[in-house]
Amino acid sequence: xxxxxxxxxxxxxxxxxxxxxxxxxxxxxxxxxxxxxxxxxxxxxxxxxxxxxxxxxxxxxxxxxxxxxxxxxxxxxxxxxxxxxxxxxxxxxxxxxxxxxxxxxxxxxxxxxxxxxxxxxxxxxxxxxxxxxxxxxxxxxxxxxxxxxxxxxxxxxxxxxxxxxxxxxxxxxxxxxxxxxxxxxxxxxxxxxxxxxxxxxxxxxxxxxxxxxxxxxxxxxxxxxxxxxxxxxxxxxxxxxxxxxxxxxxxxxxxxxxxxxxxxxxxxxxxxxxxxxxxxxxxxxxxxxxxxxxxxxxxxxxxxxxxxxxxxxxxxxxxxxxxxxxxxxxxxxxxxxxxxxxxxxxxxxxxxxxxxxxxxxxxxxxxxxxxxxxxxxxxxxxxxxxxxxxxxxxxxxxxxxxxxxxxxxxxxxxxxxxxxxxxxxxxxxxxxxxxxxxxxxxxxxxxxxxxxxxxxxxxxxxxxxxxxxxxxxxxxxxxxxxxxxxxxxxxxxxxxxxxxxxxxxxxxxxxxxxxxxxxxxxxxxxxxxxxxxxxxxxxxxxxxxxxxxxxxxxxxxxxxxxxxxxxxxxxxxxxxxxxxxxxxxxxxxxxxxxxxxxxxxxxxxxxxxxxxxxxxxxxxxxxx
Length: 624
Prior knowledge:
Layout: H1 10-13, H2 16-30, E1 33-38, H3 52-58, H4 62-82, E2 86-89, E3 95-103, E4 106-116, H5 123-133, H6 137-144, H7 152-177, H8 182-197, E5 203-208, E6 213-216, H9 218-223, H10 236-240, H11 245-252, E7 256-265, E8 268-280, E9 286-295, H12 296-306, H13 323-336, E10 342-345, H14 352-361, E11 370-374, H15 383-388, H16 406-409, E12 414-418, H17 425-437, E13 439-441, E14 448-450, E15 454-459, H18 463-468, H19 474-480, E16 483-486, H20 496-512, E17 518-519, H21 521-529, H22 535-549, E18 554-555, H23 562-565, H24 580-594, H25 599-606, H26 610-620
Helix pairs in contact: 2-7, 2-8, 5-6, 7-8, 13-14, 20-22, 24-25, 25-26
Pfam family, one: HTH_8
Protein name: Transcriptional activator of acetoin dehydrogenase operon AcoR
GO molecular function: ATP binding; sequence-specific DNA binding
């Protein structure tokens, strides 16, 4: 029986909730906006991932909405006419694409996607758009800057996927009207989307129970370096060799997540991670396996972005004009133009990581990762696995598939080893070996992994004394201490204290949304007279505190933490008497601020136990 599409409305033949879910799944997979229309170009679903420039401006006024409707209609008609997904520039300048929902050759609806750009926009063109729409050009350009820029080939891939989705919906409607295979089609659609969205979607390859490739996307071709572009229908063993790991996984229908696989293709060793999921039929029998693939180098890049393995600061972010800082600045330039290892020395809180990031960002490795490791913060038993990684099963609790170490994550970039003086001496030999050989071996593994890493280490300890006392290896010391940069403590930096204070006031004024006219002279006098045992970190803490509690237009000395503005000056006139209790309170407060509220470090510095410190805090009325 044939059905007349001109007499049928879209929502009469398909469940709206299912249509919405199908549309939304497509949008989440591709990251583009999506909306479904009926044959009269009326929206029937809720829009998803619509961007500000379209929602707030293009579609919120009559002229902009009219342009959108004209473009959407043309896109749907073009796709219907050509039988292909239509990719087009809408009247308002965005790149959109459309795919029709058909019934017996008649369009009964359409799914639209897009609201992206394929290249950097011509701002003059969009300023004219704003003027036509009657909106503020600056606000319009601000919204334009938030629009995703997607390569043309990725847009085409998304459009092709949209066409596959619309074709699947069209087929389902036809089957529903004929009362044939509706449930199977619906389940297959869900299974296809579930398999695609539950795994990493870089490269995609589907294999049936006979080990033959039934689908492969362009990314998988690229990752596996396949020269044969017609592999669908061919056995995996023929394409990748008889002993490839993928055939073993497909044969045994193994469910894996991020397993590391090495491929040998044309003399090239390709390191990638693969996840696999079985394809289940309606009766729960297995029809094959879906693989998702990523090259290890891209995984490293993703991990580095997620964990913040980037350097944000440059020399422009370092404030200072004192002689000690000028000398340090010169050495930053020397270190940035060198490949040698660097050792940063200075008291706690002087900004050693800031210097390390500046060296990295001014060096030839600035495009690579910057991975920071605090050697004192890592548990003794985990330092080796954190630095060098581990294989699956290396120890109880080891993550399935193993884990990349910090040196691997820092490959082609810089690793910053903070508080290197706290590294256990029995592990220092492993670090020395990496420095000498530029290779790492994961815990529980045998494979040697080459790494190209620049090392910057830092310490607030006297490493030479540690060498003399047998707590630090002499050979490692000389390997690390090629270029030594000493960062002076804040109390030795003179006028830098004023510069830093003004800089911090400006930063916190913006961050906290407070407009401050300045600071009283007594405020700066207290800042200058304080010894700053916690250095720049303590100064930052004090200024942020003052910016939070200030009530007037100007910062006053009473806005500073009590440990600073009530600090006893024993060199002033003898007539000013201060009680022992007050001295004790100020000492405890100052030490607590120095260590950012860390009870253990404060107690150790004061030479008392944690419980004793808690008692003193309570008696003295000091809040931790």
